Amino acid sequence: MDKLRIEGGRPLRGEVAVSGAKNAALPILCAGLLCAGPLALGNVPQLHDVATTLKLLRRLGATVERDGERVLLDAAGVGSVEAPYELVRTMRASILVLGPLLARFGEARVSLPGGCAIGQRPVDQHIKGLQAMGAQISIEHGYVVAKASRLAGARIVTDMVTVTGTENLMMAATLADGETVIENAAREPEVVDLAAALVAMGARIEGAGTDRIAVRGVGRLHGAEHRVMADRIEAGTFLCAVAAAGGEITLTGAQPATMDATLDKLREAGATIEAAGDHIRLSMKRRPRAVNVRTAPYPAFATDMQAQLMALDCIAEGTGVVTETIFENRFMHVLELQRLGADIVIEGSTAVVRGMPKLSGAAVMATDLRASAGLVIAGLVAEGQTVIDRIYHLDRGYERMEAKLGQLGARVERVTGSP
Ligand code: UD1
Questions:
Q1: How far is the CA of 92 from the centre of ligand 1 (A)?
Q2: Is residue 121 within 6 Å of ligand 1 at its C-beta?
């Protein structure tokens, strides 16, 4: 299992190009199942989760050609409607094939994703919404088995804001008979990007980016071209790393307009930030000030940035209060941060982080994707050597992270090894 070895305690300086967004690429790839024409995508990040999605699409019968950040997907030959357990269990987002398969083929069998490290993460809202559109759904042998001769437009009010739930229902609705309205829809920029790709494929969607999305079903969709949006979480992670370690960074290929909550928090922590076009420049000349964050659906502070901001609070001046409202078990990085000398007390869904003047390197274990990013930031700040084990979590969602950190002058090395 690969590890990351970091020699911390140095400021970071340089330029990094932001990759395409994982959380936009995954649903857009699954949207390719909705039509028989080719979908040509640009800016698709080279990540483990994308590879898993491509594998799943091939398994269903789609042809996929990949050339760097370009992917050409053709779902004309799809002959299977089953997403098997061995693929779904490694990536929860596989549930995103449910809506498209059901809408186009009238049936789907998708393995239930099951539990995951950061909490229960059920898919009841996906199922409830599809049932409202007339689908017959049962759970059989661990699979969601869905059938519908043709989905019918419906008014759906989700119990909570769910990103992939909104995406699944929006995709299913594109081929339904009549209008579907999704109330309490997720407003995440990735939902907007998916909607843009679907519209390019001939879908009729209004309101993406608001909490009310209206989709008028059409008879069929066609092939299209789309460029995947920039990854706001990857961008935020690099900014946070420089804000914590000190120094200066220029991000290129970013979409700062999707990053307000993160940029505001980093400014509050004392960073100077300028954003123009697709560039973001951050400089940090002081020890960060502790900031309080509360995660919530977009446009509020993203749960996917929580661990990174907490790492910054660990070495900040003052005490930061971090409240997680989206996932019930997303503080697993706390125990690992404590191994580096952080002073954190958890009380329910709140972590109180008392900033320390310094952290000291140690061996730590990555527990999930964004927790790993928090540990990398802490490792970059800590004095001495930090070795992060199980970085396959990191590889799921960050493209060439150690190379990009190297461009900033960080001493980061991948150690390839056996378990
Ligand atoms: C997506 C993102 C993930 C991010 C999360 C929250 C992708 C591929 N992943 O995950 O990176 O951390 O949004 O911004 O885009 N819930 C239910 N029932 C459901 C669906 C969700 O109870 O049917 C609950 C979840 O357990 C969680 C909350 O709703 O507590 C939000 O989850 P959701 O927005 O669905 O997360 P994902 O779409 O899985």
A1: 10
A2: yes
Active site residue 116: yes
Given ligand 1 and candidates 26, 47, 157, 160, which is best to mutate, with the most ligand atoms within 8 Å of its CB? Answer: 160
Instruction: Please tell me which residue in 30, 116, 240, 314 is annotated as part of the active site.
Output: 116
Cβ of 202 less than 6 Å from ligand 1:
no
How much distance in Å is there from the Cα of 103 to the middle of ligand 1?
A: 22
Output the CA 152–ligand 1 centroid distance in Å: 25
**If you average pLDDT over every residue of the chain, what do you get?**
95
Residue range 104-120: mean pLDDT, rounded: 78
pLDDT single digits (tens) 185-235: 999 999 999 999 999 999 999 999 999 999 999 999 999 999 999 999 999
In angstroms, what is the span from residue 127 Cα to ligand 1's centroid? Answer: 14
- Residue 114 banded pLDDT, cuts 50, 70, 90: low
User: What's the distance, CA 185 to chain centroid?
Assistant: 17
Q: CA–CA separation, 21 vs 229, rounded Å? A: 6
- For ligand 1, pick from 88, 128, 164, 192 the residue to mutate: most ligand atoms within 8 Å of CB: 164
Q: What is the pLDDT of residues 121-160, one digit of tens each?
A: 689 999 999 999 999 999 999 899 999 999 999 999 999 9
With a threshold of 0.85, does the pTM exceed it?
A: yes
Q: 123 CB less than 6 Å from ligand 1?
A: yes
